[in-house]
Design brief:
It is a single chain. This protein has 291 residues and is α/β, with parallel strands linked by helices. The chain has six helices and ten strands. The protein has a domain at 85-166 and 245-273. The chain has helices spanning 73-77, 108-119, 170-185, 207-221, 231-237, 258-261; strands at residues 3-7, 41-47, 57-58, 66-69, 83-89, 94-99, 134-145, 154-168, 282-283, 289-290. A hairpin with an 8-residue loop joins strand 7 (134-145) and strand 8. Helix 3 (170-185) runs parallel beside helix 4 (207-221). It is elongated and about 80 Å long. Pfam families: T6SS_Tle1-like_cat.
Length: 291
């Protein structure tokens, strides 16, 4: 085999012994090792801003070149619609029952969400994309609560940090160009990219960034270093990468109802929840955790 190109490898195998949890490095019968000789050249593009608990990275960099590009899992491998509206919970929805005359802003769940909203922009996985949307603390109030033993009216207040914006899939076209050019560098023969194909076209102001990403890929293929993206470039890229990690429940018709999401099961409902501190867990090909 001349060339094997990989896009953000996520094995994510869960079994009965680990409670169907795909977060560990045990891939059961799935063999993901790529020993020398499996191909003349292997190249791996990984997602720099992917951090979901269930999307641990299976790295190959102990044996093969691996380049981390900005974005989430499907920003690198493709799969997003041309345009998507994100309405996401960036904190796990929480609920509190209080007396009816207590202001929403005085509840513990609201104040906790405010503190979380102040912390979230400092996480690397979120920082580039937050300026392109609206992040805020939202609440729901349910007054259908039985009064206490003294007859005092009560209410239930739910709160969460939400994030909303519209984002395109244009960055995945850049990732595709990088793999295309790296594969050509490794000796694979392709037809030229059709410049008239709208499905492959991305905004012209990404041209220089795309060229830089291609240079990074070619350099890594040869075992060389390459200039990383500047803060300004990352801010531009942030408009085009998706926020894959969130606390939305699987039942997405509940997405606008914070109260409905509170009691959802963490394991089976919040399948896109972030890993600890919004930082991705990485394993090598043998399943050993990497720092």
């Amino acid at each position: 085999m001349q060339f094997l190109g990989l896009f953000d490898t996520v094995t994510a195998v869960g079994g009965m012994l680990d409670g169907l949890d795909p977060h560990d490095g045990n891939n059961l019968a799935v063999k993901i090792g790529l020993p020398p000789g499996v191909a003349k050249q292997v190249f791996h593009l990984t997602a720099m801003h992917e951090c979901r608990y269930n999307f641990c990275l299976n790295s190959v960099k102990e044996q093969w070149p691996e380049l981390s590009l900005p974005g989430a899992h499907a920003d690198i491998g493709g799969g997003y619609n041309p345009q998507e509206e994100e309405y996401l919970f960036l904190s796990r929805p929480a609920v509190e029952t209080v007396l009816a005359d207590v202001p929403t802003e005085a509840t513990g769940v609201y104040q906790k969400a405010v503190l979380q909203a102040e912390t979230l922009p400092h996480y690397f996985a979120l920082a580039p994309m937050l300026p392109s949307g609206v992040m805020k603390v939202e609440t729901n109030t349910d007054e259908r609560v039985s009064p206490d033993h003294l007859g005092n009216a009560k209410k239930r207040v739910a709160a969460a940090v939400t994030f909303q914006r519209i984002v395109s899939n244009d960055w995945s076209k850049v990732a595709l160009r990088v793999m295309y050019e790296v594969a050509k560098e490794a000796g694979v023969v392709f037809d030229a990219i059709d410049s008239d194909n709208l499905k492959l076209r991305y905004p012209t102001h990404l041209n220089q960034i795309c060229e830089k990403a291609i240079k990074q890929g070619k350099a890594f293929l040869s075992g060389l270093e390459a200039p990383t993206f500047t803060s300004e470039e990352l801010n531009t890229i942030g408009k085009y990468i998706h926020c894959s990690a969130n606390w939305n429940a699987v039942d997405y018709h509940l997405k606008n109802n914070i109260s409905s999401a509170v009691s959802s099961s963490k394991t089976f409902s919040f399948v896109n929840r972030p890993d600890e501190n919004w930082t991705r867990t990485v394993y090598d090909m043998a399943g050993n955790p990497q720092k």
